[in-house]
Each structure stands twice: as structure tokens, then as C-alpha cells.
Amino acid sequence: MSNLLESILRVGMTVFIVGPLTAWVARRGARERSEATDSLDCFLVRMPAAIRTIIACCAVAFELLMLGVYVWQGVSLGEWDHELVWFGHAMALAGMAIWALLSIPRIDVDGGRILSRNAFGIRKETTFGNITRATLHTQMMRIDLFEGDRKFCSISLEGVCSLNLLARLEEEGIEVSDAVDGPMTKAGLCWSAIKPLTIVFNGMALVFSLVLAFMAVFTDEGARLLVLIPFLFLLIGVALPLVMLSMPARGILEIGRQERELGFSFSEEIASRGATGTSLVDDDWFIEISNARVVAFRRDYLKKITAHENSESGDRCTVTTRGGRKIKVYAAGSTLEDLRTWFKQGAKANCAAKISAAVDAAILGHDMAMQCRGFRAGEGLIQDTVEETIASMGYVGRVGMKDTDVEILNIMIGKTVVDC
């Protein structure tokens, strides 16, 4: 009977609470996006109302849930456990603190004026004429605006009308640069990939620690709860980020494998290009950070890239190296599509060079024919007729170039070292 009751409760929770709440969040988000203005002169950048409402509701729900358990336990069992009420208070306060951190920050643009409010409610005002630059924290989804060398404000790009702000900055001619302006290194890429998760985990540890501290002050547990706080930070703030470090570390190890097979130094090659930050896309390199993973490949290391597909572990594609090894690359679908497009564009450029050489040879042959000049049969691959000449060239390409192709590939993958 208890199993039947539990099943009924689960179905009821899904049908009457989880389902309607999910549908409401989706409708609320869609309506807020549709109501967002496209104007670049007057708009408001802030966290979406659906997220703010959910967090506030969760805070109230914690309070009501603990209060309900407290009353039920007291009435049914005669045990009035006041610690449950204090725990509900603590969780509600923590939830409302998170709500405030997400709800209070905003940027209001009205013509040339910028009105800013930070998480502590402090208001500032300036104009676009005073904004000298902006820095974009790609992984943190945050942008900072500067007046000279002084930071004016910071706002999350996950809010509504964030694209309006970026477009307005571009319209005003204000440069938006990568917040990570130091030289690109393997350690820097790894840290940039794991930094958002580290901040989230430490934020969780801080919230739970504040709850324990609140309980320690207002309940009889006292020092026993305070002893748990260091272990919370060690477990959530340190151990979990170290476990998640395996995600970007795989990309860093792949860079090391490319260094060994192609015979180059990543730090020296990147330094010679003057690359900074966490992103580099040029004729030879594709380096991006996506979903806490480092995607970094040199063009001459790759042979084939498949179209990205969905899997239980996320979007992925398969990369085949020149040596025939297949690698599963996990990242956001857009990043994987950019990687494949970058690789195919390089192939198109190579084909274009071959076509250009062939057309140049055809024009040269035409000029020679118009001047009654040419090669005689027996010179090189030239035969008595055009058909026989084409057949001889095809034979050389089909049979004679096999060993040459092998040697070229060996040089490309670094298997053969050519002495100068």
C-alpha cells in the first residue's frame, strides 16, 4: 500500500507541480523574449524574470516545507523539533540572498545615458562617450564597461537585451576585447575552462556554510555544525573542481600529442603568432573553449572531421588524424560546427590552389600551341597521341606516386625527420 501511495504522490507531483511549473517557465521566458525591444536607444539589461521568480519561489518553498514538517511532526508524533524551523529560515534566507544577487544588478540605457545598479544596490550614471572600452568574459558570460582605467559596471550577458548592449557598443565604436589578455598557454586554457565551475562550486559551498553557521547560532548544535564548514569547502569547493578538471585536461593532453607527432612547441608557436586570451582561429589553428572543454587542433594534424551528433554525454564529433587515430571531441554543437567549417574551408583553399595551378598550365599550353611549340613524343611522359599521353600520366599518378604519398605523409606527421 505504501508503494502505491508513493507512486500516486510521484505522479501527482509531476502532473500538478513539476509539469505546470516547467510550462510556466517556458511560456514566461518566451513572452519576455518576445517583449524585449530591438531598439538600441532605449533598453534594459537584467536577469530574466522567470529565473528570478523560480529562485524566490524556492526560497519560500523551503520555509513552508520545513514549517509543514515541523507542524506534522509535532501534531502526529508530539515532537516539536524547533531545529526544522530554523533550518527552513536558513534555507529561505540563502535563497533570497541568491535572488537578490541575480535580481538587483541591471543596466538601463536611455539614449546616450547609461544607468547602472550593482548587486549591493549602488547606482552609477555615465554616458557612452565616457566608456573607453569593454572586456568580455566569454566563459563567465559577463561584460565589464570601463571609464578610462576604472571599471564602471559589470553585467551578465545571460539577461534580456544583452545583445542590444553588444550591438550598441559596436555602433558607438567601443572595442570589446577578451578579458583574458595574457599570452595563451596550456595552463591558462585549462584554468579558463574550469573557472566558471570552480566559482559555482565555491558559491554552493559558501551558501551551505552560511546555512550551517545560521543553524549553529540559533540551535543547540553549536560548534559541531561549524566543524563541518571546512570540510564543505574541501569537498565542494576543491574536490569537485579537481574532478571536473578531467574535462579540459583531455584537450590539453591532445595538444601535447600533437606537439610530439608534428614536432613543434605549442608555447613557442603561439607566442610567435602573438595570440592572447582563450580563442584563436586562423589558417593553421582552431582553439576554443566550450562546455568546460578545450578544443585545440592544428590543421596539418587532421585528416577528417565528421558532422556533430547528439549523444548521452552531449554533442560530439569524430576527428580522424593523419595517423589514422580517431578522437571523439565533445563540445557545444555550434563549436563543433565551427571546427568542421574551419577544416573544410582549409580544404577548399587547398583545392583552389590546385585549380589555379591547373588553369595556369592550361593557359601556358594554349600559348605554346598558338606559337606552334610543344614537346615531342618520347620526352618525359609525352606519347604519340593525346590519349596515350593522358594514359601514361594517369599510370604515374596511380602507381608511381604510391611511395611518394607515403613519404609525404610521414614527413607531415613527423615520422620522418628531414635533415637540412
Task: Report a brief summary of the structure.
This protein is α+β, with helices and mostly antiparallel strands and 420 residues long. The chain has helices at residues 2-35, 49-77, 82-103, 162-171, 186-218, 223-226, 228-244, 246-262, 266-273, 333-370, 386-400, 402-412, and strands at residues 42-45, 106-110, 113-117, 123-127, 133-137, 142-147, 150-156, 176-178, 280-281, 285-290, 293-298, 302-305, 316-321, 326-330.
Structural write-up:
- With 420 residues, the protein is α+β, with helices and mostly antiparallel strands.
- Among the domains are: 1-35; 375-420, no CATH class.
- The chain is 57% helix and 16% strand.
- The chain is built from 12 helices and 14 strands.
- The strands form 4 sheets. The chain has a 4-stranded antiparallel beta sheet, with helices on one face.
- β6 and β7 (150-156) form a beta hairpin.
- α2 (49-77) packs antiparallel against α3 (82-103), α5 packs antiparallel against α7 (228-244) and α5 packs antiparallel against α8 (246-262).
- The radius of gyration is 31 Å and the shape is elongated.
